[in-house]
Design brief:
Elements (H helix, E strand, L loop, with lengths): L2 H7 L2 H4 L1 E3 L5 E4 H7 L5 H17 L4 H4 E7 L4 E7 L1 H9 L6 H19 L7 H30 L4 H8 L7 E2 H16 L5 H10 L16 H5 L3 E7 L5 E7 L1 H18 L13
Antiparallel strand pairs: 1-2, 2-4, 3-4, 5-7, 6-7
Helix pairs in contact: 1-7, 4-6, 6-7, 8-9, 9-13
């Protein structure tokens, strides 16, 4: 056994390594976060976002290396990524250099990458070769089908608003409720030439059962139905200056369905503002 192999086999990063049924490996970003010494997801998103930009600049497949996923816990679903070895290496290289755990991650993934480069590739025969060919064909079909659906969404009715809504089917990250509202505002002005207030977006999400309305302490939080449906969740915690916070975040599935609701409503009514008879808390 080489020194490099010995070092990597004792690493805690091996214990969080996961393997899919097809034999491909990945690391959960949520698991990697704690091992790299980060205590908050919003802080760990910094090296993740930088790593994604680095991969894109190098011409690598970002979505393939940073597969979006959702980690289910006992309390709420949480945004996550399934990182390839290369993606995990980029995240480590973009981590906080003052953290010793980050230095350990950089060393580990550099070694793993080198081991993969020098290891002889196995020769597949018979059923194993056929199985790999079937998996590769299935992946190709899935990719082509995804591209076809994206193209169909863009040309459907020859309307930008439909393309806007359908594009969120490919979203891989959650967004703040306020961030989502700002995007709707920009879309309304650019596509329809109408003024949409953030209050209109918030009231509409409440009307459709995405968020809680009324005079309550948890007004604006994700509803139990939205959480159970995988649409949204309420991120609660304490800021660095000691103040508690609660922020509703829309998951990719929630963004997708919300955009379909919004585009349909605006197309039919010319505005997102609800009639007074309905009211924001209806």
């Amino acid at each position: 056994m080489t020194d490099l192999t010995l070092l990597s086999s004792k690493s805690p990063f091996d214990s969080i390594r996961q393997v899919r049924p097809d034999g491909s490996e990945f690391w959960s970003a949520r698991d990697l976060m704690s091992v790299m010494g980060y205590g908050a997801w919003r802080e760990f998103r910094v090296p993740i976002d930088r790593a994604m930009k680095s991969a894109a600049n190098q011409g690598h497949d970002v979505s393939g290396n940073f597969g979006g996923s959702t980690k289910i816990s006992s309390t709420k679903p949480a945004e996550d990524f399934e990182l390839s070895r290369f993606a995990a290496y980029l995240v480590a290289m973009n981590g906080d250099p003052n953290k010793p755990e980050v230095a350990a991650a950089q060393s580990y993934f550099a070694i793993r990458t080198r081991e993969a480069e020098v290891s002889p590739k196995p020769t597949l025969e018979g059923e194993e070769l056929l199985a790999v060919a079937v998996l590769e064909a299935a992946a190709t079909i899935k990719r082509i089908d995804g591209e076809r659906k994206q193209l169909a969404a863009k040309v459907e009715h020859d309307a930008p608003l439909v393309a806007k809504a359908e594009a969120h089917s490919a979203s891989t990250k959650s967004v703040h409720r306020q961030e989502f509202a700002r995007e709707v505002q920009a879309w309304g002005k650019k596509i329809h030439g109408i003024r949409i207030l953030q209050a209109h977006v918030f009231s509409f999400l409440t009307h459709r059962g995405m968020t809680i309305g009324g005079e309550r302490s948890d007004t604006g939080h994700a509803t139990a139905h939205a959480v159970a449906s995988g649409w949204a969740w309420t991120d609660k915690g304490t800021s660095e200056d000691g103040y508690p916070y609660a922020t509703t975040r829309l998951l990719p599935k929630g963004q997708d369905i919300a955009w379909k609701w919004i585009t349909k409503h605006v197309e039919a009514n010319g505005t997102l503002e609800l009639p007074r008879a309905i009211g924001p808390a209806a």
